[in-house]
């Protein structure tokens, strides 16, 4: 059966036609950030993929949050201009005869991993995305955890650093995992760490001290080139992430944690060994966590969207 999978990110909207778990066609356009604009983009993507009225069995949507899951709306996302985007309404207008399933992107990705990923069938698994922000989804005892409004596990807002003096998270909290290790905050993290750095005065150190670090990529590139201070920043990001993963493990008792998201996947060689090293301290042998790379790379959202439409998780409303 053909399923249309939609991945709504802050920057890109991607739509794919998926047949038996295989992506047959995929198109993307920039997310205009308004409800009207998104309606236009969705219908243009459907036209490009030549999918539409009555031709597909079901539609799965993996979206940035926060979501009102019962209504299928994005509500009050800091990354989008419109306060409310009525996703369910837009999709039903486009596919009136299809069933539409909508979930938070990281939550959908966890379900995609559970059904189709490298560790498919593991009854207790977590999916963590390290991207612009940090998020996650969890399957416990074979059930996808949703929470009443669809934002059950905002793991990026767990406190991983009680002494953090680097400024607040986007949500207003202090010491949050996302505020230290989220891609948009890594330049700030480098500035904060520069103030206490006693090592060599490297290029990235001077840039950080003067507030000239413009992106997470700059930090990771410098670290890959052997810049001692950049390696220190990357180690701190990995350490915060290990603390978050260990806490998630303690809360959900998962056996496997799968990590995806562009910040992680683009810098896996640097991050993975460091995360594993710090996990040895935070989550010792008795509760060892298996850390696994995401199965679908940049298509994690699309495969998650496919998965929730292919086999609807219990408790997820359909439109
Ligand atoms: Zn937060």
UniProtKB/TrEMBL annotation:
One of its GO terms (molecular function) is glucokinase activity. Pfam families: ROK. The lineage of its organism: Archaea, Thermoproteota, Thermoprotei, Desulfurococcales, Desulfurococcaceae. This is ATP-dependent glucokinase. It comes from Aeropyrum camini SY1 = JCM 12091. It is an enzyme of class 2 (transferase). Signal peptide: none annotated. Keywords: Kinase, Transferase. InterPro entries: ATPase_NBD, ROK. PANTHER family: BIFUNCTIONAL UDP-N-ACETYLGLUCOSAMINE 2-EPIMERASE_N-ACETYLMANNOSAMINE KINASE, ROK (REPRESSOR, ORF, KINASE) FAMILY. Its EC number is 2.7.1.2. Gene3D superfamilies: 3.30.420.40.
